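Figure 2 data, in text form.
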Amino acid sequence: MKILGVDSSGLVASVALVEDDILVAEFTMNYKKTHSETLLPMLDEMCKMASIDLGTIDAIAIAAGPGSFTGLRIGAATVKGLGLALDKPVVAVPTCEGLAFNLWGNSGFVCPIMDARRNQVYTGIYLAQDRFEVVMDQDAMDIHELIEILNDKWSEVTFLGDGVPVFSEIIEEELRVPFRYAPAHMNRQRAASVAALGLKYYKEGKAVLSDDFNPDYLRKSQAEREREEKYLAGDTVKKAD
């Protein structure tokens, strides 16, 4: 069974092909280029180098969010287009679950943290030692609230994600349980993990038609929040008048 994996949920752009329990190919970039510039050229190059015929894949797995609103939209448009052209289903893999799957075999809790601005993180808590288990569903929350939750669980934690360099000082000051950070080759989004987890979910019947796939943003975009704030501020002024 062949699963194409795509992840454009953060700063990293990544594509991969997993066939059963073998990683056939992966192309990952973490550089100052937009996903609109890199994603399709990376996919094309990977297919050429590994002689991959996309018509033979069974499904497309995508990191479905949360993450960068622009990145998620680019990934969704790419996957919807491929799914329609190839007549293949799509498997939505929650971004934090895909990140946590990087650390399969890890002891203790795995805790991805993605910088969501305003002292918030996109995060979840997972076990991945001999099985993959969601301990806390992914959510957007204040970093201090997350640390309180982890302190209450009293278990070793491994952090990964682009929120680590942003919030490492707070973690080191406030966390009272043993913790560590994932190494460089595991600490960012990887399409190989999305594809491998997507294969598992595909077998569980979680695939959808490409037209039915939509990203999971978890919260409104900054532009939407600012519009709402302006509207509420204007409404308050009117009521005061």
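Caption note: DSSP finds seven helices and eleven strands in the chain.
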